[in-house]
Amino acid sequence: MSFTSFFDHTVNGLIIGNIYALLAVGLALIFGVSQLINFAHGSVYTVGAYIGWASITYLHTPLPITIALVVLGSGALGMLIERVGLRPLQGAARIAPLLATIGISFVLDILVQLVFSPDPRALPTQLPEWRLQIGTGTIGALDLLIAGIGITSAAVLFGFLRFTKLGWAVRATAQDRDAAQQMGVDVNRVNQTVFAIAAALGGLSGLLVGMYYNNISPAMSFQATLKGVVATVVGGVGNVPGAIVGSLLLGLIESYGVAILGTPYRNLFAFALLLVILVWKPNGLFGRKRVLPPEPLTGTFIAPSKPWRVPPRVLLALFAAAVLLPLFNPSPYVLQTLTNAWLYGALALSLTLVAGTIGQISLGHAGLLAIGAYASSLLVLDLHLSVGTGIVVAGVLTSLIGTALIFPAFRLRGHYVSIATLGIGEIVALTILNWESLTRGPIGVSGIPPLSLFGRDASSNEAIYWASFGALVLLALLQWRLLRSHLGRTFRAVREDEVAARAYGVSPDRYKALAFGFGGFAAGVSGAFTAHMYSYINHETFGSQISILALTMVILGGLGNISGALLGAVALVSLPELFRVTAEYRMLIYGVALLLLIRFRPQGLLGTV
Amino acid sequence: MPPLFTRHRFLRHAVALSAALLAAPLAAWAATASGEPVWFGVSGPLTGQNAQYGAQWKAGFDLAIDHINAQGGIHGRPLAYNFEDSQSDPRQSVAIAQKLVNDKRVLIELGDFSSPASMAASPIYQRAGLVQLGFTNSHPDFTKGGDYIWSPSISQADAQPLLADLAVKTLGFKRIAVLFLNTDWGRTSKDVLVKAAQERGAQLAIAEGYQPDEKDFRSTLVRVRDTNPDGLVLISYYPDGALIAGQVRSVGLKQPIAAVGSVYSPKFIELGGAAVNGIHTNTAFYPDEPRAEVQAFVKTFRAKYSKEPDAFNAYAYDAVVYAAAALRQAGPKADRKAVRDAFYKIKDVPSVIFGKATFDAQTRRVIGVKSVNLVVKDGKWAQIDEKAAVASSK
Description:
Order of helices and strands of chain A: HHHHEEHHHHHHHHHHHHHEEEHHHHEHHH
Oligomer: heterodimer
Largest sheet of chain B: 8 strands, mixed
CATH class of the largest domain in chain B: Alpha Beta
Strand content of chain A: under 5%
Structural class of chain A: mainly alpha
Strand content of chain B: 15-25%
Shape of chain B: globular
Radius of gyration of chain A: 24 Å
Helix content of chain B: 40-55%
Number of strands of chain A: 6
Order of helices and strands of chain B: HEHEHEHEEHEHEHEHEHEHHHEEEEE
Helix content of chain A: over 70%
CATH superfamily of the largest domain in chain B: Response regulator
Radius of gyration of chain B: 21 Å
Number of domains of chain B: 2
Number of helices of chain A: 24
Number of strands of chain B: 15
Strand order of the largest sheet of chain A: 1-2
């Protein structure tokens, strides 16, 4: 790399880092005050961009007015999200608001798409065209504006937090919510203010990034959330200056990563950085060195609730109905939908064990599906194993690889675990994309043989249905046995109070590894089945959206609850199918249904076990 | 424009197109189609990441159906379709496949959009014996799914050598930098292109694959700049192509750019602005091309939607035309197998993309592709040579 190129890569890294910073600051603020990773932040960013587009296109506003409208509009949206979506969930498990933000982001994205059409649009910059020559590269007015707004908003924010009364209240609330409330701070107002500020910043960044690329689309939110979260964690969640430094660092690392290894490695570098930082400094670069564990030391995410026990008689009846169903000649569509539900059910089992029973919220579970799917496909295609053996070996391999990958995250706590697993999921997908000699890269694996068991073809709808249901029931029974054993109680002890468990001589890491190992097997089997059913897979088949879907399933059913996980899987696979008649609106209805469920049953339909 | 005139114009062109496109003997006297419709099913994205392509499909389908039904439909029955939203998600496309397969009225299926979603559903269509016409599926293994799996998607083996001609022969690139969308389509296209360019005496300076959700290309472009190529080739769709074009000059790259035909869209210029001026492409679909099939399609499209058609509209339109040709060929009492057999028999179906489309019995893809060379000039697409190039069929 020549010096000029190094210089250009540095400038590029700083520019893109600046863009991440606009996103990360809002996320950091919200985390600081409400200990919540706001997955709706990317959607607010999209809404902001579209407010800007609409005001330029329809009202012909000059730039300052456009900015003002975007700030006001997104700020109001932020307040609305806090008031309607999150405040009613106070006192519910902390996972409930997290899931609510996922649901809100879902609804917002679809609304934007319905109102503005899914087509990407050009967002005029409204700025002079001049560019400043720096080295071999150039810097334009917009680059400077983005940097200017980044620095200004950071400064204003700093001033607000340091010198205003409301700012003090925000900081007090961030330090100790209960104490602040006892001292007379209106915690709700503080929360709402913070959401408004964060959303205004998020919307503004949407506008600026849209102008920067001259391109906005309703699909832009997920990637924005992902990068914003990584940048925030690198800096130390809840730490505003940390978020800015983290963003710049992320931008630089990505830029240098592209420079050294090439474009396909860009995100691999970003997520590897995330993991290294989490392992090296679990609280981020600028996080406080020693964070006291939350008081009292009970499980971070798990709400005290009384689970609804499903009577064994009902379970047996449902089981019999499910087994006998194909004999009554239902439509293949119903069978296929239920087959999908069984396969997702196995994934949900895996996740509910990890997230529910032992308290490690995983956002990267799709990665396990992918490992299982690739393992079985490649074993059968390249090593000529039989399909049945392939599936079992794939389960074992997923269990081993998955546990090994996740092992560094075991010393993390709470939200950090979810973010680390999110990164691991992305790393798995990117490794599959780039490890061409093994995985065939972007071309994917095609011609995967259909399901066969004991040498007999089992690719008919009924056979796949029964085979996947059988596997699911087997996994569920094993898990049920596990949870009722001494081991299961130890798992829950680790979840409820890791420090206390350690004091009793329990080594949490080993138990976490056991849980991930068992969960990995279930997910791997599910992925392998899916691969043989699809006959073609590539790195996109199991995207990060599936991880979020799986988490939604287990939270919806009730964390740690086996029947709950199965119910969640059946509900979330079949609901979008039920709403099929509503065409373009079906995902909106699905999103709203999800939000209502979280609102009225935050501990999950069947409750946490 | 008064509405009556528009309608009149529309009808006039509908009739002109009918004559040009579908010279079926029955069509001449059959007035309007009536009775129970002949159905085809569609599995494609109406929501989610790829929703824009589903919307473009719909416009193309509806236009083709207008024409076909105005002309008497399929053996006197109207043609109709059932569009199921898959979000281009394999989990949903397999469920949709079961639904369509079980709907006895459905005689052909069109879609899905992406390879993972389409190819996951292929075994179901193949087992049930329902033709899956994957008209955007250029994955090299797509039609290997079985004898019910067909694709009129442009074969990259045909299309990329034409792009190599443009880049190497017309524009004189000796050392080429390729930026490609890192998907099955982009990757396959890149491999064919690089080989074809090398056969024409050019060298590869660098090939960089990027992710579909990538927005920042500056670092990639600096890397490209460091290899000092004398021309860039983009294997992109229009949104990412426009993004790259917008950032190319900011890193000091001044080399000429050629791009694959998928960038052809009015949107490319809207999103790219001044930055796309001077970019060359060769496309199978160009609305100003004088061919009768193209002109009839474009005029009626403008009349119906008051906007410019783009390539995905044309693919969707053509797909329905092929489906209709096969349904006609199969006869009034056709079952699904007869429709499959009809695909082996239909010849020279008038096509916007191919001129005359005929499926190869071995590959189950359409042979050859017509393409014209274009350049963006003062914010408009302009043709740089008179005649369309035709890929030599193998």
